[in-house]
TrEMBL record:
Originating species: Pusillimonas noertemannii
Protein name: Aspartate carbamoyltransferase
GO biological process, one term: 'de novo' UMP biosynthetic process
GO cellular component: a single term: cytosol
Family: Belongs to the aspartate/ornithine carbamoyltransferase superfamily. ATCase family.
Broad EC category: transferase
E.C. no: 2.1.3.2
Length: 343
């Protein structure tokens, strides 16, 4: 499933951020290092499914600081840490943090690093998680910083694509990836396109309504690696030939002065359009949550029983991938195999 790696030295040193064992951006990875992380994620699968037990993080404490809504990222990071024998302390929202009393990011980070062994942080401002990381030497993981990045989501997305392609007998090199929806504010696609760009000869079709296109700085970074990047506002056109269809939610909460009029049901990935224009062996992904409210148009529930829909397999992959991230950043990945015992 993965290419051979010729890299040497601990993975956590090779993916470090400013010399620290922290994960802020997918820019920290090469193709070799990301695939090394995925080999560790594969080893985590029996523990993630509770077929085996490991306590390599026994006694360690994770601080989950989430200043924005989350279900998957917060719970799966917490569950991943617990599956390796550690414990988790959570703070959710500004209201229940002393930042509501005016405490700075610097002070919060310094204080928390005296209490816990690693931090996962989600914050509405782009660049804010890097501020937390700069203030401490403990592992800090970016759980989403505004419209910036969501590196662990992109890692589990890429892991899902490689796993699904392996099942289908396909290679990622040369594949066609369609990304659909709010590509301006969707941080998962910002991280994912950069990570996918580590592969060879990809074609990206970016399907977005006017005003919600992928930012130029990300297009330039992916474009430098020689991939074909096409932009369109036609979903039908975007789906034709795509091996991966990655739908996203409209991030209304991040809108400045954008209007939603341009975003209509024409952008919904649903069974009718996938059957009409999509490949029979396409995989359909979404970082979730999908918006199920009246008038929302990201991903139709009529695909729920379609085998091409990979969204729940994708969400499940959050556990082994996040276990691998912790094991690497905390330097215990070499101990996991020896620590395994039966349930
Ligand atoms: N995909 C994702 O980040 O989901 P949550 O917002 O529920 O964490």
């Amino acid at each position: 499933k993965y290419a051979q790696s010729a890299q040497s030295g601990p993975l956590r040193d090779r993916i470090s951020y400013n010399g620290k064992h922290q994960l802020l951006s997918v820019d920290q990875f090469t193709r070799e290092s990301v695939e090394e992380l995925f080999r560790i994620a594969d080893q985590m699968q029996p523990i993630a499914r509770r077929q085996k037990v490991s306590r390599v993080l026994e006694g360690a404490v994770l601080g989950n600081l989430f200043f924005e809504a989350s279900t998957r990222t917060r719970v799966s990071f917490g569950a991943a840490f617990c599956r390796l024998g550690g414990s988790v302390c959570d703070t959710t929202g500004f209201t229940f943090s002393s930042m509501a009393k005016g405490e700075s990011i610097y002070d919060t980070s310094r204080v928390m690093s005296g209490y816990v062994d690693a931090l996962v942080i989600r914050h509405p401002e782009r660049g804010s998680v890097a501020e937390f990381a700069d203030a401490t030497n403990i592992p800090v993981i970016n759980g989403g910083d505004g419209a910036g990045e969501h590196p662990s989501q992109a890692l589990l997305d890429l892991y899902t694509i490689l796993t699904e392609f392996s099942r289908l007998g396909k290679l990622l090199d040369g594949a066609h990836i369609a990304m659909v929806g709010d590509l301006k504010y969707g941080r998962t696609v910002h991280s994912l396109i950069k990570l996918l760009a580590l592969y060879r000869d990809l074609k990206f079709t970016l399907v977005a309504p006017k005003g919600l296109e992928m930012p130029d700085y990300i297009l330039e970074q992916a474009g430098k690696r020689g991939h074909v990047i096409e932009q369109t506002s036609s979903l039908e056109q975007g789906l034709v030939g795509a091996d991966v269809v990655y739908a996203t939610r409209v991030q209304k909460e991040r809108f400045a002065d954008e209007q939603l009029e341009g975003y209509t049901a024409d952008f919904q990935v649903n069974k009718a359009i996938v059957d009409r224009c999509g490949r029979s062996d396409a995989i359909i992904m979404h970082p979730l949550p999908r918006d199920s409210r009246e008038g929302a148009h990201d991903l139709g529930v009529d695909l729920n029983h379609d085998p091409r829909l990979a969204i729940f397999r994708q969400a499940d992959n959050g556990i082994p991938v996040r276990m691998a991230i912790f094991a690497v950043l905390l330097g215990v990945e070499g101990l996991v195999q020896h620590s395994l015992r039966d349930v």
